[in-house]
Design goal:
The complex is a heterodimer of chains A (about 525) and B (about 500). With about 525 residues, chain A is mainly α. Helices cover about 75% and strands about 0% of the residues of chain A. Chain A has one domain. A two-stranded antiparallel sheet of chain A has the order 1-2. Chain B has about 500 residues and is mainly alpha-helical. Chain B is about 75% helix and about 5% strand. Chain B is built from 20 helices and 2 strands. The longest helix of chain B is centred in the last third of the chain and has 32 residues. Classes of the chains: A mainly alpha (about 525), B mainly alpha (about 500). The interface between A and B is medium-sized, with 34 and 31 residues.
């Protein structure tokens, strides 16, 4: 009875919020600073849409790409401006803190590298550049917003912004049936998953009377009242929706087909950017909002993802498909961190997303360059003898694969290491053991690519074009970042631990504005 | 090198870093050298000799009266987790470092003409491998150790896969996966130790374990012991985890085989001694019986399989299984003689088996076969080669006054003290090794020349002699004056066994 009344009382909070938005003063200027990167990215996105028709198609690739790149760099710079204004904005919908700054930098950097590795690709595949770059920028806006939104409804909108642009980007190889298939599959399954997410949000609202992360955390954990059953269902549904986005098992079935069909640089982007953002949301919902009963959900999903991902990757012959299964496995490794103690796990997960982004983007940059017109060369056999014909390309690819295996002095090693040590410190011996065994299995299929490149005779008909400057730069950035995270992981990890501490400890005590909202009711 | 001894002492804090990273720095410099094979080879030779000379500083300046680590350097590398760049050596590791730097220039010499393509990459990999190997023996931070341990894997697998022969890819992948899977368990154990002690420092962890300051250690110690054991047992290799070894050895290029047998296998026995025995003395004692039993199987099984090999290189490879069994037997006998002998066998086996692989490689360069049946009567066309071969074979067999004898004798006496029946059975391994090696020698060198082609085989060239003389001299000096080595080994081993005695 009491539960029902509280729910009833709280159900007015959303209209209350709307009323406040209409009646109160316009937001202060600092609020705009707190979404500055999003604004910059949107502006540049629109600029590209305006400039695109003015340029003739032949010359537009280079200039539009450059605009997009400048846009991401400007957004990256504006992130540091944003970081000077910590706090919430727009009626408690967005919060700037260490956590959101971390993911802003990560997501925007991912976009920048993806744009760099698209320069040559678009030209070779004869893809129109305007919408492509525009969509990447708009998608990035969504991903950025996902990481700073602390309002489930805004998170949903941000998720949709990022998803819709990736749905379209996946279908950009219009001449290929597989690309259309990829796009359609991604769209249908993705919409289905976001519906789950939205349903979860609705139930969470029903259970706690709020869609604000802090308020949810407060409602679930204050007083002696037991957590309503509805909240458990809501958590599960939200996890289903986000589990799809991060391609964790059993919601992973779309990934191989979509990755196989989508343009290679887009796969690089969507296997890292939206995934990182979705992990950020997952951290917000599960850890910051302290959603109930997620431990076993995560445990099972992590174990399944690692095992299924690695076992299926063993038999793949298409490099993109192989990397798709590898990304499922890595989602599993990452989820292990979620099951650990909140603070340790959060920082480990944050570091993992960064390291995974660096190595996987790099790997896909190599794949995009090598794929050639129509993505003809994406099977393992095509990579035979690459070590002989293109030593630099092969060496960098090997480096990324080593990082994916988790060999020391690469970022991938420390990422796995932090997850493993977080798990062991939280006494998750079972999950840690599954992780270790899976890493061993995983080594095999990455090794197959290396073996192909170095130990098989080259097949004459596969051409290797010289590496253009932009793609070279993209790969170099990824190599340097992977190496940096592998040799001096300290600064990034320290930052991640600091923001994790904020994220975990600041919950529970609702902020001033959410208190005033409650008083109003 | 005309500095006075006092000046040389100034080198002490950085000497380990120098020795470790000279080869890798040289390897990276080779990247910049244009692809003129001769220059690259010369440069690699100079670099590896430089590392050897630098490493000689270590035994000369090692103070033997103390039994702690020497030449220590301890700098913070990463703050979270608490990882230090902590290096140091004792009387055990010092010789393994020198063994590595001693064998590498010989590997460069022996690969001079046998590598024809991708020469640049070959020598880069070889030098990177040397750095990783030295790093394994000098690291005192568990993390740093794991890093170097894994780092040996990549250059070695590439050396086998790119420059080997026959089923090279299969061999390389098998080698990689066996070691990788084994070391994952070690990583889990290392992370557990870190989670409970907050440190990766070997000395600190050892101290904490010994003083009982690690929560939950009692329950976990068996699993930790096994985690380390699996990783090292694959590397040694201890029967039944040895199956990668014959494949890797037979298909590897000569230099790869030399370093694989000479040094890489020692990483396993060194790890057993340093970590399994050093960190978990109680578990080591408790599990000694079955480990000794496996070692014994390895000795006899390796020897019997060697006996029937038609392939010279495979024969030498299986003989390694047998010889490394002695090392494990010596370590887990927990007697002073056994431990001393184990370390000495490691060194002696590195020299002798490294030499045998070099000799086999020299023959392969001329005839492109390792089949014993393809030879016969080689002593006639190649008398000098036959002489070097005989010396090395006798060293490996354990003829007194050559290096194989001392180590095996000590191990056997140690094993006999611990368990007489094991000592007796292991002693048959010595007999078997005489059988298979001398029988192989007889079939290859004695009698009439069986195949017409072999009549025209050229004897050793100057370069090959330059590579073989050091082996022969080392085998002899180690056999005549073992105390030079044992005087450094003994205090270190005493320190280890003192921990064991607790």
């Amino acid at each position: 009875m009491m539960m029902m009344t509280t729910a009833f009382a709280h159900s007015f909070s959303l209209p209350g919020l709307l009323a406040q938005m209409q009646t109160s003063m316009p937001p202060p200027g600092a609020d705009y600073m707190r979404i500055l990167p999003e604004l910059v990215l949107s502006l540049f996105g629109m600029l590209i849409m305006i400039v695109d028709p003015l340029l003739d198609e032949e010359n537009s690739h280079q200039s539009l790409g450059t605009i997009a790149l400048i846009g991401t760099l400007a957004a990256l710079a504006s992130t540091f401006w944003m970081a000077r204004y910590p706090g919430t904005a727009f009626w408690n919908m967005v919060r700037v803190e260490g956590f959101s700054v971390f993911f802003h930098v990560l997501v925007i950097a991912i976009a920048a590298v993806a744009i760099l590795s698209s320069f040559e690709y678009l030209k070779v595949q004869r893809i129109r550049a305007g919408e492509y770059y525009g969509l990447i920028l708009f998608g990035t806006v969504g991903m950025c917003l996902m990481s700073s939104a602390i309002e489930l409804v805004l998170i949903f909108i941000a998720l949709e912004i990022s998803s819709i642009s990736t749905y379209v980007l996946a279908g950009f190889r219009r001449r290929e049936a597989s690309s259309s298939e990829s796009s359609l599959k991604y769209f249908l399954l993705g919409s289905f998953a976001t519906a789950f997410f939205l349903y979860g949000v609705a139930l969470m609202f029903g259970a706690t009377g709020s869609t604000n992360i802090d308020a949810i955390s407060h409602a679930l954990h204050s007083g002696n009242a037991p957590v309503p059953v509805l909240a458990y269902v809501a958590t599960a549904l939200i996890f289903v929706g986000l589990g799809f986005k991060v391609s964790s098992a059993p919601f992973h079935v779309w990934a191989p087909d979509v990755y196989e069909g989508a343009p290679a640089p887009v796969v690089g982007l969507m296997s890292t950017g939206p995934k990182a953002a979705a992990f950020a949301v997952l951290l917000r919902v599960l850890i910051e909002a302290r959603a109930p009963g997620y431990f076993w959900l995560i445990w099972v999903s992590a174990a399944l993802s690692m095992t299924l991902g690695n076992v299926c990757a063993l038999v793949q012959n298409n490099v993109k498909r192989l990397l798709a299964y590898s990304s499922i496995a890595h989602a599993g490794y990452l989820l292990v961190a979620f099951a650990a103690q909140p603070e340790l796990g959060t920082s480990a997960a944050m570091f993992y997303t960064a390291a995974y982004a660096a190595m996987n983007l790099g790997a896909f940059a190599v794949v995009s360059h090598f794929a050639n017109a129509g993505e003809k060369y994406v099977t393992l056999e095509d990579y035979a003898g690459l070590g002989r014909r293109s030593p630099v390309l092969a060496a960098t690819f090997t480096f990324f694969l080593m990082s994916l295996i988790g060999i020391p002095i690469t970022g991938g090693f420390f990422a796995k290491f932090y997850v493993l040590s977080a798990a062991l410190k939280s006494n998750l011996v079972g999950l840690a053991l599954i992780l270790v065994l899976n890493s061993a299995v995983g080594a095999y299929y990455y090794l197959r690519i290396i073996v192909m490149m170095y130990m098989r005779e080259p097949r004459g008909e596969v051409p290797v074009t010289p590496l253009p400057a932009a793609a070279g730069l993209a790969i170099a950035v990824c190599v340097l970042l992977t190496l940096y995270l592998g040799v001096l992981p300290g600064p990034v990890l320290d930052y991640a631990s600091l923001s994790a501490r904020q994220l975990v400890n600041d919950t529970g005590a609702p902020t001033a504005s959410s208190v005033s909202l409650a008083v109003e009711q | 090198m005309n500095m006075s001894p006092t000046n040389m002492d100034g080198l002490n804090p950085i000497i380990l870093s120098l020795v470790t990273f000279i080869p890798a720095a040289g390897g990276l410099l080779i990247l910049l050298i244009p692809r003129r094979d001769r220059d690259i080879k010369l440069f690699a030779l100079v670099i590896s000799l430089l590392a050897f000379v630098a490493s000689l500083h270590l035994p000369v300046h090692l103070h033997r009266d103390l039994n702690s680590f020497k030449f220590e350097i301890d700098k913070v590398w990463i703050t979270t987790p608490n990882i230090h760049y902590h290096m140091g050596i004792d009387g055990i590791s010092v010789w393994l470092v020198v063994l590595t730097t001693f064998l590498t220039p010989l590997c460069v010499l022996i690969s001079w003409n046998s590598i024809h393509e991708r020469v640049k990459e070959f020598f880069i990999l070889l030098l990177l491998l040397e750095t990783a190997l030295i790093g394994v023996f000098t690291s005192l931070d568990l993390f740093l150790f794991y890093f170097f341990y894994e780092a040996t894997l990549i250059p070695m697998a590439l050396l086998i896969g790119m420059y080997g022969h026959g089923r090279k890819v299969y061999a390389a992948v098998k080698f990689f996966l066996f070691t990788m899977i084994g070391s994952m368990f070690m990583l889990a154990a290392i992370v557990w130790l870190y989670a409970k002690t907050g440190s990766f420092d070997f000395v600190e962890i050892q101290h904490k374990i010994a003083s009982g300051a690690v929560p939950g250690f009692e329950a976990a110690s068996l699993w930790l012991f096994l985690g380390f054991f699996v990783a090292f047992a694959v590397k040694v290799p201890i029967f039944p985890l040895h199956t990668w070894l014959p494949d890797a050895h037979v298909e590897a290029p000569t230099a790869g085989s030399v370093l694989l047998a000479g040094v890489l296998l020692k990483m396993g026995t060194y790890g057993l001694l340093r970590f399994n025995v050093g960190l978990f003395p109680e578990q080591a004692h408790r599990n000694a019986s079955w480990i000794m039993f496996l070692a014994l199987i390895g000795i006899i099984y390796g020897a019997l399989v060697s006996l029937v090999q038609p392939n010279m290189k495979k024969l030498i490879a299986y003989s390694s299984v047998s010889h490394l069994g002695f090392v494990v037997l010596g370590i887990f006998s927990f007697t002073a003689a056994g431990l001393n002998g184990a370390v000495f066998v490691m060194l002696a086996h590195g020299v002798a088996t490294g030499g045998l692989f070099m000799l086999a490689g020299i023959l392969y360069e001329r005839r492109h076969t390792y089949e014993i049946a393809d030879f016969g009567g080689l002593a006639t066309p190649m008398p000098k080669y036959a002489t070097f071969f005989l010396v090395t074979v006798l060293a490996s067999v354990g003829l007194p006054l050559l290096n194989g004898f001392i180590g095996e004798f000590l191990v056997l006496s140690g094993a006999f003290q611990a368990r007489p029946i094991y000592g007796i059975l292991a002693a048959t391994g010595v007999i078997w090794s005489a059988c298979y090696l001398l029988w192989m020698y007889q079939r290859v060198f004695f009698g009439k020349v069986k195949h017409e082609v072999n009549n025209a085989l050229p004897d050793l060239s100057l370069r090959e002699k330059a590579a073989l003389w050091p082996i022969a001299i080392a085998a002899l000096v180690m056999g005549v004056a073992p105390l030079v080595w044992l005087s450094a080994i003994d205090p270190a081993v005493q320190a280890a066994s003192k921990v064991v005695g607790q």
